[in-house]
Specification:
- This protein is of the alpha+beta class.
- The chain has one domain: Aminoglycoside phosphotransferase (APH), C-terminal lobe (Aminoglycoside 3'-phosphotransferase, Chain: A, domain 2), CATH 3.90.1200.10.
- It is built from 8 helices and 9 strands.
- Strands 1-2-3-5-4 form a 5-stranded antiparallel β-sheet, with no helix packed on it.
- Strand 1 and strand 2 form a beta hairpin.
- It is globular, with a radius of gyration of 18 Å.
- The model has no long low-confidence stretch (mean pLDDT 95).
Length: 270
């Protein structure tokens, strides 16, 4: 059963009680071994998160692709996880002493550059615009002064990466972007989702209240918003030629950045 077919292919195997996640971009495959180490570290500290399936090699290599196999946390029990629960999960994660050896330092534009290098059918004019925009965003990042100390961050902390198990516990998933970085970054995805995807404003308010910080009231917010939006635009570059649906939404997002219109609503890639 296919759960997601974008940059990563994710399949549920009900009879095995497993979920398989396949890295489809060669430019991003370097993250898979780190994901395995993060999963083991989280399990050792009993942090609520999805677990690797016992007895299966991690990662699995086959046909030139890398995959990870996870114990199925279930299709998502009701009620859906809330932003308040996400805030609580992030507070717990951010409070954990970082592992040894150290996680990589947060570099939010690394995956942007890698995906541009692995892009399918990206017109020259679009590539030039994205390269110039990435340069401007990098300059902006150098001016940011963070209020909170660096911690272990999830790196892609939106509600889609929180699952409620049948026993009611919510667990984090998707460790591709886990790193040592500014705690503020983990509060940005929900805020941007409210603006760009039209998600209820109450989500951001709940997250801010549960975590204790409204990232949109901080002077570094405009820069981190620009980073998040650039990442959301470029995340499907490796599959542009093979996914017409993703390519169409990529064009909507790219055109809104090119025109400088911050009000254009986006839709999920899948």
């Amino acid at each position: 059963m296919a759960l997601k077919l974008t940059v990563n292919y994710v399949y549920r195997l009900p009879r095995a009680g497993a979920v398989v996640r396949i890295a489809t971009s060669s430019a991003m495959a370097h993250r898979v071994p780190k994901v395995v180490e993060v999963a083991r570290w989280l399990a050792a500290r009993d942090i609520p998160a999805v677990r690797l399936l016992p007895g299966v090699p991690a990662p699995v290599s086959a046909g030139g692709a890398l995959a990870t196999v996870w114990a199925d946390a279930g299709p998502g029990a009701p009620p859906a996880p809330t932003a308040a629960e996400l805030g609580a999960a992030l507070r717990r994660l951010h409070a954990v002493t970082p592992p040894r050896p150290q996680l990589p330092r947060w570099d939010p534009l690394d995956d942007v550059r890698r995906r541009m290098s692995d892009a399918e059918a990206l017109p020259a004019a679009d590539r030039a615009f994205l390269e110039e925009l990435a340069g401007r965003v990098a300059e902006g990042l150098r001016t940011v002064r963070y209020r909170l100390p660096p911690v272990v961050i999830h790196g892609d902390a939106h509600l889609g990466n929180l699952i409620r198990r049948p026993d009611g516990q919510v667990v984090l998933c998707d460790f591709d972007s886990v790193s040592i970085g500014p705690a503020e970054w983990d509060l940005v995805p929900v805020a941007v989702g409210t603006i760009r995807f039209g998600y209820p404003a109450a989500r951001h308010a709940q997250l801010a209240a549960a975590y204790g910080l409204d990232v949109t009231r901080w002077d570094g917010w405009p820069v981190l918003r620009a980073v998040r939006e650039l990442k959301l635009v470029t995340s499907v570059l490796p599959i542009l030629a093979s996914s017409p649906t993703a390519a169409a939404q990529f064009r909507v997002r790219l055109d809104s950045l090119r025109s400088g219109d911050p009000t254009v609503r986006w839709r999920p890639y899948s």
